[in-house]
Design goal:
Layout (H helix, E strand, L loop, with lengths): L6 E7 L3 E7 L5 E8 L3 H18 L7 E8 L3 E2 L4 E2 L12 H9 L3 E5 H11 L9 E6 L3 E7 L2 E2 L30 H5 L1 H11 L23 H9 L3 H25 L3 E4 L2 H5 L1 H10 L6 H5 L2 E4 L6 H16 L4
Parallel strand pairs: 1-4, 4-7, 8-11, 11-12
Antiparallel strand pairs: 1-2, 2-3, 5-6, 8-9, 9-10
Bound molecules: zinc ion.
Length: 327
């Protein structure tokens, strides 16, 4: 793949803002800007205008771009290239991929956040040069992206890799997706926060309320409060943290048995927790995966850290170009 002059446009669509950046093949961000989220009809031309401005700042034109990638929260309609409505997304079934393709006259690819996460690690981060990698986003929910045999696994309808919704216990807690006992219901930020809030509803005197950052407020009883409470040795938090680590290990064991990856990369919450999460997970892992799987698989924290968001769109662009044989 040529490395000189390969510039791509990355667009990261979030609930409140849209980040636009131009990067090179090595993942250097050459120019970037942001737009506030608003109605699609006004935001679409703003994205195009900002892209042109960023190009002009670099002394470039659209002809210098090889492609464009959009990273957006799911659910997405992959066949139609559309971002669908969700609790965090006010847009409703907007055909952004084809609209941008037409407006920019460039190849445009679209992927969800988690697929973009594995692509960013693969093109720019700790998974460079690897063929079999799994990435797990761990924030409000738990999402997954899978590269197997050197290709992003998309499945029949483009929605493969929902690693947060494998069911770990038929009688487990309610997940936001409607199923019971999903990995996300045990390890996702929203679900962990709800469980903590439920446990402490009638207990305003509990030590967790006195943690810095919680400050006595029920709305501050988050995943982070569980982590900090466990670090402080508070029994309830320790018990919850232990369950998070055990269930995460159970999930990783299933991924290892299914995909035999050489690397599993954990994002966001794992990035903030570091070894405090990783070490107990590794200790539990032998209960869920044979040594044959564990020995050839490195489980690690994201190599890109918080930069992953910035590079997500660009990596989607590069993967689109790669899949279509353009690079
Ligand atoms: Zn679920």
């Amino acid at each position: 793949m040529e490395t000189e002059n390969c510039k791509v446009l990355g667009i990261d669509v979030g609930g409140t803002k849209i980040a636009v950046c131009i990067t090179d093949r090595a993942g250097n961000v050459l120019a970037s800007g942001r737009i506030a989220m608003g109605p699609y009809q006004t935001v679409l031309p703003e994205i195009v205008a900002l892209s042109d401005k960023l190009l002009a700042d670099l002394g470039c034109t659209r002809n210098d771009l090889r492609g464009c990638g959009i990273c957006a929260p799911g659910p997405l309609d992959m066949a139609g290239g559309r971002i669908m409505k969700s609790p965090n997304m006010t847009w409703d079934a907007v055909p952004i991929r084809d609209d941008l393709q037409q407006a920019l006259n460039l190849p445009v690819a679209l992927e969800n956040d988690a697929n973009a996460g594995v692509l960013a690690e693969w093109f720019f981060g700790c998974a460079q040069g690897k063929q079999d990698v799994i990435y797990l986003t761990m924030s409000t929910g738990v999402g997954g992206g899978i590269v197997s045999g050197g290709r992003l696994v998309t499945g029949r309808t483009g929605i493969a890799g929902e690693l947060g919704h494998i069911i770990l216990d038929l009688n487990g807690p309610q997940c936001g997706c409607g199923q019971l006992g999903c990995l996300e219901a045990y390890c996702g930020g929203r679900n962990v926060a709800l469980r903590l809030q439920e446990a402490l509803r009638q207990r305003p005197e509990h030590a967790i309320y006195r943690l810095p950052g919680v400050d006595g407020k029920p709305e501050n009883l988050t995943f982070q409060a569980v982590r900090d409470g466990a670090k402080a040795g508070i029994p309830l938090a320790l018990q919850m943290w232990d369950e998070i680590c055990l269930r995460l290990a159970q999930g990783l064991g299933i991924y290892m048995n299914t995909f035999n990856p050489e690397q599993i990369v954990l994002g966001t919450a794992a990035y903030y927790a570091g070894d405090f999460l990783l070490q107990p997970v590794l200790r539990y892992l032998p209960r869920f995966a044979w040594a044959d799987f564990r020995d050839c698989c490195e489980v690690r924290i994201t190599g890109l850290g918080l930069k992953i968001g910035e590079l997500a769109g660009a990596s989607v662009a590069l993967n689109g170009l790669r899949e279509s044989g353009r690079i």
